[in-house]
Design a protein that fits this description.
heterodimer; A: mainly alpha; B: eight-stranded mixed β-sheet; five-stranded mixed β-sheet; 13 strands; iron (chain A); membrane (chain A)
């Protein structure tokens, strides 16, 4: 199936709106007091999970393209990656503002004391350069090779993000394991293809 | 169902209780799952009648008491207590109950009894807390424990109600323990067995992770959980965090029990 550029543009608008649905849902829940007894915790965790979901969706573009041969998928990757960053910024802001009330001493202590916060901050910091260099202009200025090398950091970011989630959980690691499994699959496919390429 | 004849208590805090709706939908009751909303959604099948509590161990008169007798054992009081969870949030809850000591005295503990162990009900067919991969998150049945003096302390109550009504299943119906100066998990829900013992009992969370969950688990802003600070807490319903109080604000009544103890060591 080949899509015209018009169709792709229309699809992009649809995907863009879809990507905003989780935010709208949470905003509505907050407005209507439907986020339960601890809305701030609910908000932070939901935004965190959506960040992770968008990260995994972004990482699935390349394998999906290889499996289906649909090159048009690539046209959506940047938008999905930026939505991952968008939800990461919201997740991070709600933590700093609503959870910690911008109490920088408490935040600094939290970063030192709690490995999962340390890991979260690290993950967020690593996302920043990728978001900044996501424009065509930056890509041109950096050169394709450098740009690609930098953006491979997303593999490490994926691992760090799952660890951040895993270490946050008190006891029941079911969901972090599910995310870890999907991530392993997505990265494993790349590795397998690369090894086969190297061999043959 | 309103419980008749509940009297106010001088041990109650004057702080504003959390909403009934929040107290009954934001629970940690891992037998039903690890999400806060799981117990309210999944506890309905738990059988709470008939219900008996066995009181045994180092006692003169071991006993099996039915829930109706437990309800009538002592005058019911409303005890509005702060509840501080080890996870860093807190609530104010209007419990209905009476001092645990009234129940414990029934069996005449022996001098050799130093600790009291509480065992929660475990109903594998009505509790589906195994998570998706089916592995139990804690060793069931849930076991908690207190030192004898802690168990006999007037602040420690047997809880049978909430907001003047019978306890909801997700809050530990039909009968539970409430120890307001300790982290919430020390207050065992839906208890079926009380055992007087000589040695410190092995408790569920302590066995799951002894470094993070000590036997005493007194609320203490100066002793951090290994993974987070305990200096502040979010009172549900409030935007800003508040400072956590030593012994959850009950120091005046309970601090003397821990005189001379290093609370960093006995966390």
């Amino acid at each position: 199936m080949k899509l015209s550029s018009k169709q792709i543009a229309a699809l992009k608008v649809i995907v863009f709106i879809l990507c905003l649905v989780p935010l709208a849902y949470l905003g509505w829940g907050l407005w209507q007091d439907m986020l339960g007894a601890n809305p701030i915790e609910n908000l932070i965790r939901s935004l965190g999970r959506w960040t992770l979901k968008f990260l995994l969706i972004t990482l699935s573009i390349t394998p999906l393209r290889r499996l289906t041969g649909m090159n048009a998928l690539l046209r959506f990757r940047r938008m999905l990656g930026l939505f991952c960053f968008f939800y990461a910024v919201l997740h991070w802001s709600v933590y700093l503002g609503l959870d910690q009330s911008f109490n920088w001493v408490a935040i600094a202590k939290d970063i030192v004391k709690r490995p999962f916060i340390t890991m979260g901050m690290l993950t967020f910091t690593m996302l920043l350069p990728l978001a900044i260099t996501s424009t065509n202009g930056m890509m041109r200025r950096m050169g394709a090779r450098n740009w690609q090398a930098l953006h491979r950091a997303v593999y490490v970011i994926g691992i760090c993000a799952v660890l951040h989630f895993w270490w946050m959980v008190k006891l029941d690691t079911t969901w972090p394991k599910i995310y870890a499994l999907i991530l392993t699959l997505l990265l494993g496919m790349r590795l397998a293809w690369r090894l086969r390429l190297a061999k043959g | 169902i309103k419980i008749p004849g509940v009297r106010p208590s001088t041990y109650s805090t004057t702080e504003k209780p959390n909403k009934y709706e929040h107290i009954t939908t934001y629970n940690n009751f891992y037998e039903f799952g690890t999400e806060k909303t799981d117990p309210a959604e999944r506890a309905s099948r738990m059988r709470i009648r008939p219900w008996t509590v066995t009181i045994e161990g180092l006692v003169k008169k071991p006993k099996l008491i039915g829930i109706d007798d437990i309800m009538k054992l002592a005058p019911l009081e409303e005890r509005i207590y702060r509840l501080r969870c080890v996870e860093g949030w807190s609530m104010v809850i209007p419990w209905v109950g009476y001092p645990l000591s009234a129940l414990l005295k029934q069996v005449e503990p022996l001098g050799s009894a130093k600790y009291v162990q509480f065992e929660s009900s475990y109903q594998p067919d009505t509790m589906e807390g195994g998570g998706i991969f089916g592995r139990p998150v804690l060793n069931w049945p849930y076991v908690e424990g207190l030192r004898l003096d802690e168990a006999m302390h007037p602040l420690t109550i047997v809880g049978v109600g909430l907001y003047g009504e019978l306890l909801q299943k997700q809050n530990g119906a039909p009968v539970r323990v409430v120890v307001p100066w300790k982290y919430g998990f020390k207050s065992a829900k839906s208890i079926v067995k009380i055992r007087f013992v000589e040695q410190e009992p092995p408790t569920s969370w302590n066995r799951a992770n002894s470094r993070e969950y000590g036997f005493y688990s007194n609320v203490n802003p100066e002793v951090d959980h290994p993974r987070w600070s305990q200096a502040t807490e979010r009172r549900l319903g409030e935007l800003l965090k508040r400072k956590t109080l030593m012994f959850n604000g009950y120091g005046e009544q309970v601090a003397s029990m821990y005189k001379g103890m290093d609370l960093r060591k006995y966390y």
